[in-house]
Amino acid sequence: MFRALSSTTVRWRPLEGEGLEHLTLRTIDTSLGAAIRAESVLIGERGATAYGARYRIDCDAGWRVFSFLIETTQGQRLHLMSDGHGHWRKADGTALPQFDGCVDIDLAGTPFTNTLPIRRLGLTRQSGTARLNMLYVPFDSFEPTVDGQHYTCLDDGKLYRYEAADGSFTADLPVDEDGLVLDYPTLFQRLSPETI
Fold this sequence. Notes:
The chain is mainly β.
């Protein structure tokens, strides 16, 4: 459904306020075999507060997150690791059982993390709706929480519906051949390759 991943770079801009994200996605070799690494820098606004941040997300070949690191230009830092099956811990090994069952993550401020469940689950129109608990990280507090989210495939490999579990937000997300969001109604717009 999606092409085999090669190194790719994309940019998005928020539809409200100022900002920009520059993301590079590539395969890397690890002691456990091939893996996927996303590295990004972004600037934006959360409410009336401007921020600058960088993040790195490492996934196995099946798009299960096993590590992510977020750092802001003001010195905030969050580094968590997972076994890929929904068990999280801090970098020092401290278990975080409150996030048990959260296989995927959702980082505020980026449309990239929508790609993680889309690629990991390989949803088709026949799959029905996937109901997920995400480890959600807001960029204002960096305090992770559990967030219920639903994903439904509307057009195989091309269009997916995201819904907040509480019904407060819904968006139909067109994606490219890598599963990366092209347009996120009301939130983000992908910039054309010519502008990169």
